[in-house]
Amino acid sequence: xxTPGSARGDLVRVATTPEGKLLVSAMDVExxxxxAAKKAVTVQASIDEILPQTRNKSASDILSMIDKKLSPADExxxxxxxxxxxxxxxxxxxxxxxxxxxFVVRANGTVRQLDAKGGGLGLGRDMYSLFPWxxxxxxxxxxxxxILASDGVFDRFGYGSAKGFRAFLKKAGPNPEAIRSxxxxxxxxxxGVDDTSFVIFRRP
Length: 204
Prior knowledge:
Order of helices and strands: EEHHEEEEEEHHHE
Strand content: 25-35%
Number of strands: 9
Radius of gyration: 16 Å
Oligomer: single chain
Number of helices: 5
Strand order of the largest sheet: 1-2-3-4-7
Mean pLDDT: 90
Largest sheet: 5 strands, antiparallel
């Protein structure tokens, strides 16, 4: 949470699908406080519920499945970045909802945003699957690093834009520790402190 000790709505999740693939996600519930935290709990419960049905489902299919499990009654939207990774073939599928970002930093230092066109609407309002959404698939090579991050992360490098965060990743390179420490040592923007959630993983 942006404020130590307070309840907030950011969440991260790592799970294993029935066919042995890894599901990795970072999500951000709209707003702050107890209401957002409760919504985050329902998101986690929704992931638990749909996980057994994710066999042969794409990353965007899985986001759609989560969306359909969430009640829109509280009108809280959720931004999300979700990756489905096959540790055998090293195929990575990525889908995003709203303003959550995902990047790959290749072993040679090249940086690319994943699912750069975005997934349109956020989750939680039962509308994500009604509009076209993307599902980008790439193969990770040895030493490639992936990061999924909420806006509380990239706002530290330029409010509301991924451009500054991309420049930071180019400087940090594919080293997970350099990325982690670089994020946490960068001051939040003057426009306000937001929750910071991110997941970093690297192909060994």
